[in-house]
Amino acid sequence: MKTIGLIGGMSWESSSEYYRIINETVRERLGGLHSAECIMYSADFEQIENLQHQGKWEELTKLMLNLAQKLEGAGADFIIICTNTMHKMAEEVENNTNIPLLHIADATAEKIIEKGLGKLGLLGTNFTMEEDFFKKRLDEKYNIEVIIPSQNDRRIIDSVIYNELC
């Protein structure tokens, strides 16, 4: 079994869902008392959220790369970023580590294609819905059209994510 490196903490609630789903999937596939071999680095979301809203993406990229390299050094075989928004720097992480990154847009695309769909309604933080890092990958790599909510609805969704779900 490969060792999964999880970059989490953004939010811890999201990270716990990733951990739960990964382990449930392993148990369903392998049976018995099997569970996933995981290494998780849980970052302080307060720091990350502040940097996001200050537009300090270069600093966030360095942070994410550092976390990925720590997981690589700890023996992870591949990396998962346990949040949509921080996939903004996934390419940098991928290009500066020696282990693969399982990109959330690729996993999403697999399911969309499996179901024979060509469109995706995207919900997430404003960063995820408004910037191209997620939409562009789905469009260019998989020819999947991405639809986002209106500006007012995006504001409401972003507020729910940061103020109710995190």
TrEMBL record:
Q: Does the keyword Protein biosynthesis apply?
A: no
Q: InterPro entries per the record?
A: Asp/Glu/hydantoin_racemase, Asp/Glu_race, Asp/Glu_racemase_AS_1, Asp_race
Gene3D superfamilies reported for this sequence: 3.40.50.1860
One GO molecular-function entry? amino-acid racemase activity
SUPFAM superfamilies the record matches: Aspartate/glutamate racemase
Keyword vocabulary terms for this entry = Isomerase
Give the UniProt family note: Belongs to the aspartate/glutamate racemases family.
The protein, known as: Aspartate racemase
Source organism (scientific name): marine sediment metagenome
Q: Supply the source organism's classification.
A: unclassified sequences, metagenomes, ecological metagenomes
